[in-house]
Every structure is written in C-alpha cells, then in structure tokens.
Amino acid sequence: MVWIDLKRVPVALTIAGSDSGGGAGIQADLKTFAALGVHGTVAITSITAQNTREVRAVQDVSVDVIKAQIEAVVSDIGVDAAKTGMLHTSEIIEAVSEEISRYKIPLVVDPVMIAKSGAPLLKEDAVGSLIRRLLPVAKVVTPNAREAEVLAGVRIGSVEDARRAAKLIADMGPEGVIVKGGHMEGSESIDILFYQGDFIELRAPRLESRNTHGTGCSFSAAITAELAKGKDIREAFRVAKDLVTHAIMYGIPVGKGHGPLNPMASLYNESERYATLMRVVEAVRILEGIEDARKIAPEVGINVAMSLPYARDSHDVAAVPGRIHLVGRKLKATSYPEFGASDHLARYILTSRLYDREIRAAINIAYSDENLERLASMGLKVSWYDRREEPGEVKAREGATIPWGVRVAVERAGRVPDAIFHRGDWGKEPMIVLLGRDAVSLAEVVRSIA
Ligand SMILES: Nc1ncnc2c1ncn2[C@@H]1O[C@H](COP(=O)(O)OP(=O)(O)OP(=O)(O)O)[C@@H](O)[C@H]1O
Ligand SMILES: Cc1ncc(COP(=O)(O)O)c(N)n1
C-alpha cells in the first residue's frame, strides 16, 4: 500500500528538451512523475523534431525564457527536486546552473549527450561547462557508460571500470553517481551507484527490445520523483531501476526505429488488479455451475488463472489456491482467488505471452480423446508437447518443463494455440490447458465441453 499525502503533493521539475515523438525528454519525464504520484512541472530547453528513427531539427529556447520558466514555477508552485536532461549549449548549462544555485533545489543531472538514434544533443564544446558548472551543484548524476567515459576520461568495458569512473566523477562534486549499464554487454543490465563511499549494484535481466527510447530520461525522472518525496538516494535508485525495467518490458511498439519505453506499465498493472481478480471469480462461478463436470475434472483438480496486462511474474497472475475439485458431479473451489496462487498455469500464460501479448488466461482440464475432439469440433486450434522428449538440461532446471513445452507447442502450431496438451509421464497426469485472453470466455468453453 502506498500512502499518498493528498494535502501536500510533491513537486518535481524537469529542465529538458521536448521530443515530438513522445518517447524521451520532458514527455518521458512527465509520464514518469505522474506514474510515481508526483506533480510534474517543466522548463523546456530545446524543441526537437524527433521520431523513433531520427532527430530532424533542434530549436534551442532562449536562455531568458528557460530561466523565466524555472522562476515562474519556483516562485509560485515550489519545487522539491529537479532534473536536467538535454542541455544543448554551454550558455544553457550555465543559466541552469545559476538558477539551481540561486534556489538551492536538489538536482539530478542526466548528462544527455547523444540520442539513441545517434544525433548529438550536447554540443562538443559544452562538455567542459557540464563538468565545471553543473556537476558541482548536482545531488546525483546518472551517466550511461559512454557518457561516464567522456566525463571521467577512462574507458569502460567492465563493471570494475564503471566503479572506477563513478569514483572519479564523484570527485567533480555530486553526492551520488550512478553509472548505468544499458549500453554494456552481458545477460544483465547492471547499474552502479557510488554514494557516501559505498557502492550499490542493481541488476536486471537484459531485455531484448527495440523499444528503449527514453530509458535514461525515465530513470533520472524516477530518481527525481522519489527525491521530491523525501526518499534517500539509495531508495530512489531502487524505485527507478524497477520502474525502468518494467517500462522496457512493455515498451510501446510504434514507429520503425527505437519505440519508447512505457513508464506507465507499473501503474496500469496496479489499476487492473481488482478487475482481473473479478474475472477469475466470475470464471469460477461458471465452472461451479456446470451440472456434470466428471469428464473435464483431472485428478489434481482444475485451476483458472488470469494475468495482469503488464504481468512480470507469477505474483501478477491470479488463480485459486488449492484449486477446484470434483464434489460428486459438481466442481467446488477450495478458496477465494488470489494473486500468486498458481505457478503452474502462470508459467503457461507467461511463456505464451512471449509470443502473443494478448494471452492472459488459462484453465487446465482432464486429458481425453473425447475432450480433444470437442475442442477441435468447436474450431479451436490445439497443439501439444511430449514430456518424454524433454531435454535433460531442461528437466534438471526447476520449473523449466512448462516453458519448454509451451515453446514446442507454439512452434508446432505456428502461433499460440487455443489449447495445449501433453499425454503425461511417470507420475505426471496427462492434461489439456486452454489459453486465451479472458478467464470468463475460457470457462464458457469448458462449460460447452462438459
Ligand atoms: N535492454 C535492457 N534491459 C534491461 N534494462 C535496460 C536495458 N537497456 C537499458 N536498461 C536500463 O535502463 C536504464 C537506462 O540505462 P541506459 O544505459 O540505457 O541509459 P541511457 O543511455 O542514458 O538511456 P537513453 O538511451 O534513453 O539515453 C538503466 O537502469 C539500465 O540498466
Ligand atoms: C529531447 C530529448 N532528450 C533526451 C533524449 C535521449 O533519449 P534517447 O537516448 O533514448 O534517445 C532524446 N532523444 N531527446
């Protein structure tokens, strides 16, 4: 539960460029502030004509108007924390530095140099101003590996190098330095914070996605939002890493280049919790209403599961703890649905979603030729895997069988099928698992089969 102080909403300010494509810059910052419950204000430094592929034009805002925007916000609304993004020239950097010093605002500096599409967003002769004027007034600075190389003057090829660079940059004035690992190699994206003489390292699986435009902007905006709430740098770092990882996982597939990440992913996920749980409740009601369920109930019981739209793991999948069992001819759920209640069906859903984002629900029923024929006669696509063909290294890994089996069945069908079955193995009951967008529609299919 996040307690929101409605009497005093925290205020964050972003001093950055506008991205017409809505993916990076102030657009990403405002979405991130909003996602974290902070009121966002802006001082636009440059207007870019930009999309997912390129920066076509840049118009810098005059230094007077940049200063006027900051003063307008500070004098009336007040600012708890600010961040900088694209600051194109030395003049802009110097003006921003003066304003920050005058109002003593806690500042996060994202030393944006080159856009993901390759366009320079900081003039080469302005790096000196960034180091001399901005870093000394920064609370936190968040370079990516390439930016850290420019600032620290060392090459970064490893986590060890990143640590060394973070220390060198800390000597330039900021309290905390985070060297981000998005542009490094390796199966994990590792970010390093150097703060008060200690290092904190946060890791996340490196996600394969084209849609990473705006990651650095959202990351620094999330840190700013948390500082605005009065959180400590370390805690802000954790929140930012989490938000950005989720936002990349559900990046927005628009444009032909690098689409934007989705800073709202966590928020949308939370907003769907109740509705998702209620779909499972309704599906259970339909199953419990089936007159004679003997042909569809497996020995181990039936379960119904449905995931949140932006699910990350089995905690984001609702199902019935203890499953639904046959009592006489009718089905009876042992308890009320909860999130995280079925690892088994969660694996079916989460693996299917790697192929088709629309899949959110699953129900398992007993395997029989008759049930398979019914599914086929309803025009549903059925695929299968054979547990006896499971490679040894998959068998050895806890929880790996279902993801492997789903992959086999999906590749066989050429898409995520409407149902996947296997004929069992030693100690494993054969099973049919129905997959679809909605738990209620799947329960209706099961009712028709029964
Ligand atoms: N493919 C990825 N998978 C997981 N996390 C990633 C990936 N790419 C970037 N990140 C994370 O996103 C955040 C931003 O890192 P990155 O190094 O990409 O910054 P940046 O280069 O400033 O971003 P941008 O390219 O938007 O300017 C970091 O927390 C980083 O670990
Ligand atoms: C206005 C503006 N600010 C920042 C970035 C950097 O973001 P990215 O490296 O993801 O392109 C950008 N492209 N445009």
Automatic annotation (TrEMBL):
One Gene Ontology CC term in the entry: cytosol
Q: Which InterPro entries match?
A: Aldolase_II/adducin_N_sf, HMP/HMP-P_kinase_dom, PM/HMP-P_kinase-1, Ribokinase-like, ThiN
- Name its species: Korarchaeum cryptofilum (strain OPF8)
UniProt family annotation: In the N-terminal section; belongs to the ThiD family.
Q: What is the lineage of its organism?
A: Archaea, Thermoproteota, Candidatus Korarchaeia, Candidatus Korarchaeales, Candidatus Korarchaeaceae
Kindly give the NCBIfam families that the UniProt entry links to this protein.
Answer: HMP-P_kinase, PRK08573.1
Name assigned to this protein? Bifunctional thiamine biosynthesis protein ThiDN
Thiamine-phosphate synthase ThiN domain boundaries: 280-447
What is this protein for, i.e. what is its function?
Answer: Catalyzes the phosphorylation of hydroxymethylpyrimidine phosphate (HMP-P) to HMP-PP, and of HMP to HMP-P.
- As recorded in UniProt, its EC number(s) are 2.5.1.3, 2.7.1.49, 2.7.4.7
Q: Where is the Pyridoxamine kinase/Phosphomethylpyrimidine kinase domain?
A: 19-262
Q: Molecular function (GO) terms listed?
A: ATP binding; hydroxymethylpyrimidine kinase activity; phosphomethylpyrimidine kinase activity; thiamine-phosphate diphosphorylase activity
